[in-house]
Amino acid sequence: MSEFKVGLYQPPSEFTMAGETPRWENIKEMTLLGEQVGFDSVWMADHLIFRMGEGAPEKGMWECLTMLSALAAVTSKMELGPLVSCMGFRNPALIAKMAESIDEISGGRFILALGAGWHKPEYDAYGYPYDHRYSRFVEGIKIISSLIREGNVDFQGEFYQANDCTLRPRGPRAENLPIMIGTFGKKMLRVAAEYADIWNADWSQRFADIAEHDEELTRACEDVGRDPATLERTACVLLETEGAVGRGSSHASRNQPTAPMSNDQVVDVIGEYKERGYSHIIVWIDPNTPAAIERFAPVIEQLKQ
Question: CA-CA distance, 175 to 182, in Å (whole number)?
């Protein structure tokens, strides 16, 4: 397995910096601090607005790819990517163009992570169609993968068209810019097996939370004639640490803090993924503060041993 990596999630929504809203200067400060203490990557969610209902407060979001392009310019070592970019928010050919441009800004550190989306209220609010999300994703990934890996595409689909489209100029990695697909759905896992360089499991804590999907991904690879070992596996892990206040997640069940985890407990949790062959674990640290990021340095050191 390649070098084990630990990524830092920077939530772009209101109230997620220990109850405060992170501004650009906060996001930049915490990302650069993360790079300094040894995080290998930085990630941001691609959402527009959260309206979860049942008395939950509405929460706005910074636009993901805009923020990532800024982080690409101020960081020097970290990989970076969306977690994950919603196919339904942008034309697929434009997504490929934006990915290539951010990869250029970063000097070849961008990971294009994609998903089909799930939060209907933001589709409704911004006027995007919510129907046929799987079919739209399949058409979109065909366009994106062709543009990134071959530099051109001519595609006529039910939902998207790309007419003699080329991707020029090319960034520093041309056809080697990696594509990640984040999903749990059985049909989407098959799409990941066909088109992705990397698979990402959504937010969990223990490996047991995603074991069933891990097995399904292996079966999907075998079904499409792919060696499962050639699809890199990554996961996102939720961590309550000292000073946790409840991460203010979009998921109501995740809003309440649990008992803070010690560094040794965190190493055990992430270490299991490492033992299972996962190459890259992205952590959401609660509280999302500079102090919490600094306290994570010994964990990274242990995991890299």
Answer: 20
